[in-house]
Amino acid sequence: MSAPRASSPPRAIESPAELRQRIAQARRDGKVIGLVPTMGALHEGHLSLVGAARRECGFVVATIFVNPMQFGPDEDFTRYPRTLDADLRLLAGRGADVVFAPATESMFRPGHATYVDVGGVANCWEGQYRPGHFRGVATIVLKLFNFVQPDRAYFGRKDYQQSLVVRRMVEDLDLPIHVEVCPTVREADGLALSSRNRYLSADERRRALAISKSLRLAKQLVERGTRDAATIITRMQGMLAAADLNIDYIALVEPESLDSVAVLDRPTVAAIAARVGKTRLIDNELIG
Ligand code: AMP
Hints:
Rossmann fold, Pantoate--beta-alanine Ligase, Chain: A,domain 2, 2 domains, globular, binds adenosine monophosphate
């Protein structure tokens, strides 16, 4: 009897032409096409999107592309984790039909000069702290939408502002795509899964927990009757500072417009961006 061979990982499609061919065939077969865009270094958060797509679509396309356009010059583009073989195995295990992992040169060819600039919800938070970030996101997402022409596209609530930016673009540019926003997947102790969590040392991992804890604190304060946003933010700040995190923003906002809320007498999104050492993490929760 021969020893079992380790199976080679499923193949990624690099060529846009081959991707188009596979999708055209799926469409001819009458399948609903679902798209899950990612930057790889996959975890259960990403895989939950693939699961949702698998349940709702006949043909699931996952993409892996670390998009240079959405990183600022001082950000972690070069050291962003790249784990293609492991990603391909995970995606095959969850039933993705096709994985598109293009080279940077085939996505942004010499002379590229067209960008998508979403206003409104893209201006605050990440838009402010990471200038050009959403321009990069919207431009690549529109290109992926054009390649795949999905019926449904899946995004995570973890990147809440990003999901609103994509929805805005879809609405404003009349794209015939249903955008599905899936719940944030967390570790058992509450930390939101993120590809960047792997940068954290053990001590930073412990301190990073203050982010999800302070979102929980906000929820509890509202449940116990606190309505004043400034009071809640002060308590959250205290918790983050005690863990020695550097806060970029803490915000309590109206879920659709991202306008600040002064009194929490309606559903409100609490959002945080904070740096643990060199690692910048974001998280959010619907509270109230
Ligand atoms: P990224 O690879 O970070 O660009 O993320 C790709 C997609 O996965 C985005 O739509 C994210 O919002 C989503 N995502 C990332 N982390 C999580 C998580 N913890 N739970 C659910 N979705 C997530």
